[in-house]
Each structure stands twice: as C-alpha cells, then as structure tokens.
Amino acid sequence: MNRHELARMIDHTLLTPEATFADVENFIDEGVDLGVFSVCINPTMLNVDTRGLVLVTVCGFPSGAHESSIKADEASQAVDDGAIEIDMVMNLGLAKAGDWLGVRHDIEAVRKAISEWTVLKVIIESAVLTDHEIVQACRAAHDAGADFVKTSTGLHPAGGATTHAVSLMKETVGDALHVKASGGIRTLDEALAMIEAGASRLGLSRSASILAQLD
Asked: Least packed by Cβ within 10 Å: which of 52, 82, 188, 201?
C-alpha cells in the first residue's frame, strides 16, 4: 500500500473537548496537506470550510448512554450543519444486558433521523464486549441500516481497536457493511494490521506521523 492509498482510508480525527475553532482550522489544513479522506470533529465545530474533505462528526459521544431521541436530534442537527457522515455510539448498557432489540432500535432512531445518503457508522466499543457481544452488535447495526461498524471511541478505559475485534467484525458483516478501526492506532504497522484484518477506514489522530513512515 502506498502513501496515497493509505491516506484515502483515513478519517483524520480531532475530538478533544478543548479543541478550538483555530485548532480545527489548523487540523483541516493538515488533513488537506496529507490527502486524507475526511476530517472528524466535534458537533459544535461543523461550521467550517473543510477544503474538499468529507465532514464527519460524532453522536451520543463518548458514552452512548443517551436517550435515542437525543441521539436522533443530535444527528439530524449535525447533518443540517453539514456533516456527511455520522459516527454514533451504541447503547453499551443495552448491549451488556443482551437487549439486542433495544440496541437495534437505538441505532434505527438515528438512521431514520438522517438522510438516506448520510453514512452512518456505529461505534460498538469492542474492547468492552465479548466475542459473542461483538457479533450481536454487528448484526444489530446491520439490521438497523448502518453503513459501518466501528471499533471504538478511543476514550474508553477498556482500550481501543484490536486486530482480533476487526477480524471478527469483518467476518460477521462480510460485504454488507464496512468496518472502521479506531482507537489507539499509533504506528504504521498497527494501521496496516487493521487493514489486513478487514478495516476499510481508519480513525486516526496521528495521521501525519503514520503517513510519514511511508515517505
């Protein structure tokens, strides 16, 4: 894989709560220079010129423990503000309780609130889940109309993406959904391992240092 090919798989991500508009503007400039696919920023920062990058934001972030109606309203507002892709956090409490119908309904609420051409990624926080729960979460996301399943927020103390989780997610969804690996990916070797395991998109905050390893 060459540098350009890897860059086009990256959601260049800045989700720190203290990020300012100036920080976001500089981050977008960096993303444009790097040739990444998109920039993923906080919902309050969407009124920016992305200079051709796809605009991604989060919903129900980072806990997922929001009322479905609140997630739906947040996602709808984000689309109105220019977001092309929404990364929502599923309800982890429902998942751990085995209430997969509830998980599906939570995702469906967001899916119904946004345009059909808006890409919906579901963050399942894979490090918190057993293998069985990962499979069930992926199936719920598929049944609810999601476009991607995503490993992690990158903020949970249980950890971020692993190749095992990515592989299991890809095995479960096949070609029906895409897999995004995100959370704790800091080196080129880690990024390439996630792609080898089945990820078609990477959420990276260290895009520049990772891509530099291919220069």
From this structure: 52
- Is 121 labeled as catalytic in the residue annotation? no
The answer to whether 112 is a known catalytic residue is: no
Instruction: Please state, for a pLDDT cut of 70, what percent of the chain lies above it.
Output: 100
Phi-psi region of 83 (alpha: psi -120 to 50; beta: other; left: phi over 0): beta
Q: How many CB atoms lie within 10 A of CB 5?
A: 10
Contact 57, 83 (CB under 8 A): yes
CA separation (Å) from 90 to 103, 146, 180, 207, 212? 7, 11, 15, 26, 33
Residue 87: active-site member: yes
Sort residue 210 into left (φ over 0), alpha (ψ -120 to 50) or beta: alpha
Q: What is the spatial distance between Cα 58 and Cα 137, in angstroms, rounded to a whole number?
A: 18
Angle at 89 between CA 66 and CA 108, to 5 degrees: 80
Q: Which residue has the tokens 């209430």?
A: 99
In whole angstroms, what is the distance from residue 138 CA to residue 129 CA? 11
Q: Is residue 123 within 8 Å of 98, Cβ to Cβ?
A: no
Kindly name the residue from 87, 106, 147, 170 that is annotated as catalytic.
87
Q: Specify which residues 169 forms β-bridges with.
A: none
Rounded to the nearest 5 degrees, what angle is found at the Cα of 78, between the Cα atoms of 68 and 88?
45
